[in-house]
Amino acid sequence: MRRITIISGHYGSGKSEISANLAIQKKIDYLVDLDIINPYFRTRSLDKLFEKNNIHLVESTVKGMLGSDLPYVSGEGVIPFVNPNITAIYDLGGTENGVRVLIQFLDRVKDINEIDFLCTVNIFRPETSDVKSILQTISMYEAVTQLKITGLINNTNLIKETTEEDIIRGEEILKEVSKKLNIPILYTVVEENNNQSYKYIFLGERLVLTRYIAKRWL
Amino acid sequence: MSKVLMKGNEAMALAAIKAGCEAFYGYPITPQNELPEYLSKHMALHGRVFVQAESEVAAINMVYGAAGAGARVLTSSSSPGIALKQEGISYMAGAELPAVIINVMRGGPGLGGIQPSQADYKQITRGGGNGDYYLYALAPETLQEAVDLIKEAFDIADYYRNPVMIAVDGLIGQMMEPVDLDREVPKWDLTPKTWVADGNRKNRERNVINSLYLDPNDLENHNLHLKEKFDDMRKNHQRYELVNMKNAEIAIVAYGSVSRIARTAIEILAEQGIKCGILRPITLFPYPKKAFHALPKTVKDLLVVEMSTGQMLEDVKLSNECHLPVHFFGRVGGIIPEAQEIVDKVLEIVGGEKHE
Fold first, then answer.
1. CATH at B169
2. Are residues B159 and B61 in the same domain?
3. Assembly ipTM
4. Which residues sit opposite A30 in a β-bridge?
5. pLDDT of residue B86
């Protein structure tokens, strides 16, 4: 895992849950929530969980204002780019505008090889359901940030209705994307309740996901 | 088509396109912004009309115009924005114009907050604007139900020539769930729109669309004609769901997101040996009075749970007709009730009172 991981993807692709899970499992120093698009279901709502796990949460300039709906991003977001001793995960907002927030930090990048810029894909999201639309999404993110996507996350799911075959289908599509762009599938996401029952060896590391943000009754 | 994973606001927008919605007019407000955002792209792709108006007032009057011209038309907003639209909605009910209005409710009063709420219940169920009218109001609890009801809502609006309100809270707008957009929904028996002002004057007299009646006798007749429609809704089109009512000793009355939480609560209660059912109104107007008559005799208490300070209580009490004790639990301001809080309230009721 590189020192900095930036998680992109269409909204609803699972960026925030994945960011939170990676930060906790990999004992990352900083979780930077750059999501100014979504008003609900953001990683910043997990402040207590991160505190317990010694993860420093960077969110709005006005901390704890979950209901503010203001597109503020704390200047602290730059720290992992300038301090080479800090590991970080950046959780972007969905859409073109969500990705744009990242640009303000990129002129501080010292070594591009320290950064993974990942794209999360769920083929059940209509905007990323096939190779063509995924390639379009990726090239849009690259055009906005001037940064190459370095890897893919297969997060194919229908929440509780997900089957092993669904994830394999997602992998088949992502394999083509992977081949076309010459980038690897770095993670395949499997929900913790299904982890034991899925015997298939998925490409990339198996990221066993706990849903922290979506509550039990969702 | 098989299932896709969608965000509530997107799914509702796509459902409208599937229902043949020809025009959308709206103005941004959280937590429903993804709905117009989605339509701003996809209405154009389907060769239909999308306009971001200069205000909510402008938007609802554009809806009035498009409906008058015979189009299937949609607007959406969230609580304060819906409040701004009330004048136009009242005019539409008066002029008998069909439209679908989606309210993704947030906390109030005033600007309130952006977190989910059900505090527009009274505004939704009592007409909302001036004059003697009601909106047919549907309150889905899942994205699939939201999609199905929106598809049907355009038919209902056309059938009654009256606005239909889809009442959801911010949570339904923002959450993700698998949905099948192509599920069959009931088709209503619709007649051609011979009343429209579409500029086509061949073989017909001039059509006038208006809510102004200066002769009180005419206005009284008009009001009585409207009342017939609302009475027909009350008589024939109440909708509700009864969940887990067999031998239930207590029933939770809850709609929308809150009924989802209630479903978790009754599972926890079942583990503790308490039989608790859910009476879930699907239509908020007409209020599903019939559901209360359908409750089994084992039910000894009603617990109303809402994300408001108790706006639905009056309807429950009117429907219950002093039959059972009515209790209440609510969270407000954008706080979502926890399943455990509902469980605790139920335990307090069933443990604290002697039956028989």
1. 3.40.50.970
2. yes
3. 0.89
4. A56, A88
5. 98
